[in-house]
Amino acid sequence: MNNSFGVFRTFSLAAALAFLCAGAFAVPRKIQRGQEAWRSLKKAQDALERNDFGAAVQFAEQGKNIRKQDAQWQTYVLENTLKKAKIRHAGDSLERVVPVIEELELFEAAEIVRFYLEKFGAVFFNGSYSRLMRFVSEYAQYPEADYILGKVYQLEGEYSIALQYMKNAYDYSANLDVPMEKYDLLYDLAQLSLDLGDEENYEKFLLVIVSDDPRYKEAGYVSSLLRTVSADTPSSVEKFFLLYRCENDVALRAFIELGMFYMNAGETEKALKCMSFASVIAVTKIESVLKQRLNGFEYDSFESLLASCGRYSDIAEWGSKNRVWELFFDFSQAAAKAGKNVFARELLEILARSEPEEYWRQCAARALEQYKSS
Question: What's the half-sphere exposure (Cβ side, CA atoms, 13 Å) at 200?
Fold first, then answer.
């Protein structure tokens, strides 16, 4: 019996080694038309929209597996190009390698290289063919699919799991077909961090969003912005909204949330800085919309701008949805806490007369009454 067992064990080991060797040298399969990863992703998105979480997970995972297989096949194709002596002799420069690939009519390799160059540009790879080849392993990551998985777990209340999926999606956000989707990821990461009581990461993810604004990183602009508020004269509010503009709709929410975060934490200067930026972004957006809508519209004053908003229900609704009317009131409170009482009072007077939303007009009026009684 022992001899039989030994023979069986030897046979099993040999079979296992043969299987592993066959797997190691197996040629990756090219994804066929109609089986692309994006098709599975679309099914996952549709399932998520109809709250079919099981199907959303199934199709998202399917999409991830297809993307991984596609990356393996691409790696195989590109590595095979190096078997050609003419390509090896061309060196590592994409400028020299790509024409040789095309000359040798390596159509699949040429298509793969073209895909990455069109998506990222040669500078992204420092002009290096080997670096492009190595990057294919990162392409195996499918951030859109991880984002959907994160959304599912977020909706199910599994915040820690959701956070991990979304972090992975953000780590590979360079792969996103729609680059701006990285900001949706960052907002969700911030919210998940807040839900988990992690204020440090909540602040960190919001700061990543605002730090992408070149104006925010421009020290002279920031100083000038705050200097105008700090002048604290009767004309400071109108001067502030006349002088500064910043087009960054994406970061508006982040500046607002950071402003309130710092206000609640008692970090007055940081709060005033974020509220200032948010207010400038909001006014820039409103002015842009009014210029498109009204022939010959020119900014005259902050109060007249607010009055114009009140005449358009869609602008008023946009302001409510994006917390803009609340923002202007909070800006006055941040200024007051920073000791800029003249600026705060002037802003409140304008808001009490012209805020498009009645609730915030009343809040401004009550705040003014407190000034009079103090």
Answer: 0
